[in-house]
Each structure stands twice: as structure tokens, then as C-alpha cells.
Amino acid sequence: MATISVKDVSRAYPLPGGGERLALEGIDLEVADGEFLCLLGPSGCGKTTLLNILSGLDRADSGTVEVRSTDGADVVSGYMFQEPRLLPWLTVRANIGFVLDDAGRRDTRRIDSWLERVGLAGRGNDYPRQLSIGQRQRVAVARALIIEPDVLFMDEPFSSLDELTASRMREELLVLWGELGCTVVFVTHNPMEATFLADRIAVMSPGPGCIVETYSVGELLPRPRDPEDRRLWEASRVAVRALRQRAST
């Protein structure tokens, strides 16, 4: 598995007319082995930028990021985008196998096992166009997890789904995370989603993004959590107050 350590990370982007826009400023963050951390903040606060830096898809202008395996081996990481990003000319089974080596792609039993785990048994020969949006996102979940990552980066993967489907996906994700025990960094702008999923929430301010508060959800509401439990709404108010307080300053 893996831990993540972020020290004084900043990132700026050049503007077309000259100058630059500061996206992140002085980010400090620690993520424990096997922890489910949610990055919560308003649109444009740099959540995705930070996630991309943690995953290696982007670079920081200053500061350091260390993603370390707890057993000294190379870190295996997975990434889920907002959209499924499936290859339309490949079958569902081939889309999942795409992230595997040649031997893994030929291991249809392994791929079919993951299709069953995400509720898509028997759909391996279908193409993405034959699936609903929610089913495509299930394929993306299987593709991200079949490599059994040490750390999984997730960028608002359920934001395009209707609430009923998104709720089911959140519950399914927690079951799979419990089985694998990987470290998860999950980006969202939804306080209820963050409170249902996370061990801990890091609240980010409007741009330039910085972490203004980090707190344990487990101390407010232990697992397992019921999405219909009124206490979930009450616990989410901690994040809402932090967001409102920062927005008004």
C-alpha cells in the first residue's frame, strides 16, 4: 500500500495576455496508508490540479510530493476521471484489459470476475455505446481497480450520474475499497458525498487553492454509514460551515 506526503506545494499557470494565475499555494497534506481522503472545495479551487500533481499527471512549481510504498516496492496507482473515457471501438472486456500486460489481457476469468464485482456480469462483449452512463462508469471502476493499485486517485467520478445511481456507486466503491485496502484520494464539491465516503476531509479554499481545514469524519460518524441516516447530513455541516466561512472572507 502507500502513503502520500505533500510539503508546501504551489502551482501557477501562464495567462494568455501575460502574467500568471496562481492555482495552488502552500499545500501541506499527509495521507495515511489505506486512508480514504476527500479533497472538498468549490469549483475552480484547484482540487483537480492538486490531484493531478499527486498522481504525476502534472508538476508542482515548488514544494515536494512523495508517494511511498509501505513495503518498498514501486507504487502502483490508478486514476478515475470525471468521464469514463472508454475506448468506443473496444469491447467492455477489452477496455478493462487495456491497462493490463499481455498475459493479463488474455486472462478473461480475471476480467470477468471484476465485471461481476461491479454488477456487469455477462456484458464483457458489449461496446460502450450499448451501456448506460452509470454502467460505463462501472467499467471505469473495474479498469481502475483490476490492477489492484496501492493508491487510487478519483476526480469527481460520479458527478455526471443521477443521484440514485451515484448513491449506489458510492456504496459499491466502499465495498471494493474495503476489499483492496488501497489509499484513496477523492475529489468532490459535494459535502454529503465527502462525508459518506471519507475517513478524513481536507477542505480547500477558493483559488488560489489552499487547505483551510482537515478533520476526521470517523470521529463524527463511524462506519458503516447509511446514506439515509440524518446524522450524515448533520456531520456534513462541518464541511459546509468551513466552505462558507472561507467564501465570506
What is this structure, in a nutshell?
This protein has 249 residues and is α/β, with parallel strands linked by helices.
The unreliable regions are none
Q: What is the CATH architecture assignment of the largest domain? A: 3-Layer(aba) Sandwich
Oligomer: single chain
Radius of gyration of CA atoms, rounded to a whole number:
18 Å
Structure, explained:
The strands form two sheets. The chain has a six-stranded mixed beta sheet with strand order 5-6-7-3-8-9, with helices on both faces. The protein has a three-stranded antiparallel beta sheet with strand order 2-1-4, with helices on one face. With 249 residues, it is α/β, with parallel strands linked by helices. The longest helix is centred in the last third of the chain and has 18 residues, at 163-180. Helices cover 35% and strands 26% of the residues. The model has no long low-confidence stretch (mean pLDDT 93). Strand 1 and strand 2 (20-31) form a beta hairpin. The chain is built from eight helices and nine strands. It is globular. The chain folds into two domains: 2-76 and 150-247, P-loop containing nucleotide triphosphate hydrolases (Rossmann fold); 84-147.
Brief descriptors of the model:
249 residues, 2 domains, 3-stranded antiparallel sheet, alpha/beta, single chain, 8 helices, Rossmann fold, 35% helix, 6-stranded mixed sheet
Secondary structure elements and pairings:
Elements: E1 2-14, E2 20-31, E3 36-40, H1 47-55, E4 62-69, E5 77-80, H2 92-97, H3 102-106, H4 108-117, H5 133-145, E6 151-155, H6 163-180, E7 183-188, H7 191-197, E8 200-204, E9 211-216, H8 230-247
Helix pairs in contact: 4-5, 5-6, 7-8
